[in-house]
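W.,

You were right to be curious about this one. When I first looked at the sequence I had no strong expectations either way, so I just let the prediction run and decided to look at it fresh. Below is the sequence, 374 residues in total, followed by the output.
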Amino acid sequence: MTIVTQPRGRTRAGDRPGATRLARVRRVVRWWPALLLAVLLTVPYSALPLPVLLEGPIGSPGNLQLLALCLVFGALATGYDLLLGRTGLLSFGHALYFAAGTYVTDIVMLEAGLPFAVSALLGLLAGTALSIVLGAVGLRVGGIAFSMVTLAFAQAASILVQRDPGGVTGGEEGRAAPAGGLPDALVGIQHTAGLYWIALAYLVVVLVVVRWAVRSPLGRVWEGIKENERRVEVLGLRPYGFKLAAFVLAGTLAALGGIVYLLLTGGATPQTTTSDFTLSLLVMVVLGGSGTRWGPMIGGILYTWADHRLGDLAGSDTVTSLPAVVRAPLSQPLFLLGALFVAAIYLLPGGVVRLPARLRTARAASGREEAVTV
């Protein structure tokens, strides 16, 4: 019989107290998304204030509305990153599919008198069909030409909506959703919590779908296309079909977001059809960290929060009491937002999500310098 012994003075890694604690920490960290989701589910019941970040209790209707919009745009940016960060496609027309979900759902309820569920399904199908058609055309070219084609589609659609053909889009004013066509449980300030939970559900759906797609064989091909499309062709694969799949999936998720946005805002507005809207998505993705799991979501949430809160800051008494030279730029929300974005790009290259890794690297480098000094 052979007896295996360990060298003297050495113990197994699992027997070391430090290793055990580290393993426990890793298990807790692995489940942080579920813990965060549990916290987010209870937000409507919270009366805690968050000074500076929010006005009044977290669970107040106004704050729930803002948080719901943050969740929607966090999800929308995550879906858009399927093109930019995962496949390397820079599209300037992603707002079209979001607007299709909003406008088609609204118009069907108003003009055809169909219930919300049927109208929402038609809006989702419209966004999917539009992404298939425009993707099939736009992806025939690549690089900057593809970006210009998507920009042309976005500009044409925006002009069409503002011209209000047949009086169905409402022109520059947009169209309000019919209160009678929406579910009673989602109409009124007293039901803001329900809308918040719908926005949270949309975010969860997008995160799950994107995570599944990225980790699938399809996602690996997307990564190969982003790195070197010619090499993918040499392997016998046709990049066009894989890029179209990413385009359609991102467009479908955007259309679903447009439907949720319609519930939150109670109508369809032409601002959601412009290329500026897609540029905002691009800023969200870059701000959070393109090509990462959580970066686009974080960027979308931060951008939406800043867009709303900086507007309040620009009109506050603190800013209006400043000298005219300082007050003039600070009273413009876009100036504040742009300055914040530029600062984030310079101070946090790679996005907000990579900040912990940069801090760990800096701490490790500092430790090595101290060791060398000693």
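Here's what jumped out at me. The chain has a mean pLDDT of 85. And, maybe more interesting for your project: The first strand starts at residue 175 and ends at 176.

Coffee later to discuss?

I.
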